[in-house]
Amino acid sequence: MAFGAVLLWAEEATWPVVVFGVLAGLLLLALAWRAAHVPKVLVVGGDEAHLRELEDALEGVGYEVCTCAGPANRPCPVFQGRDCPLGERPVAALIYRPAGAAGRYAPCGRALRVPSVIVEEHLDAEPAVAGRVARVGLDRGPDRVVRTMEDLLAG
What is this structure's pTM? Predict the structure, then answer.
């Protein structure tokens, strides 16, 4: 960027052109930095239409979403004592639990050392928080799930 400004100056470009070139370069650097530092959220669960709404809500407020089908769809490496291959440093894990599901919750938050939100398909109660884990019903809408996650991140 500085090299480009020197070239413009050496070519006797007018100051407005040099200033515009420098500002354009700074804008490109800012956009590149922003793209490299977008916080990621891991969404774990089946390929449900309402999970796409949740992913859209996350992206709408500035998160990048990475997804995992979850242990119900394939063996979970964490349950087998191995590292999660999706450990791309997410800031939180949202773990979808469909109605009638049995067994343990996916241990993504604990394994990746990030807060986790258990997203129950049908849960009428207010979101419940215990330490770095929260439970919230998807019936309350994707925005409520995102707000619960952000409350965990802030706390």
Answer: 0.70
Q: Are 143 and 55 in contact (CB under 8 A)?
A: no
* 2-37 residue pLDDT tens: 655 555 555 665 656 556 665 666 666 655 555 557
Which backbone phi and psi does 62 adopt, to 5 degrees? 105, 15
Dihedral in degrees, nearest 10, Cα atoms 11, 15, 17, 19 = 120
CB atoms within 10 A of CB 110: 14
Six token digits for residue 66? 């990475």
- Dihedral, 31, 33, 34, 35 alpha carbons, nearest 10: 90
Amino acid found at 55: E
CATH code for residues 40-154: 3.40.50.2300
**Domain locations in the chain as residue ranges:** 2-36, 40-154
Ramachandran assignment for 42, one of left (phi > 0), alpha (psi -120 to 50 degrees), beta (any other): beta
Residue 153's closest CA among 122, 127, 115? 115
Q: Is the dihedral of CA 42, 45, 48, 50 positive or negative?
A: negative
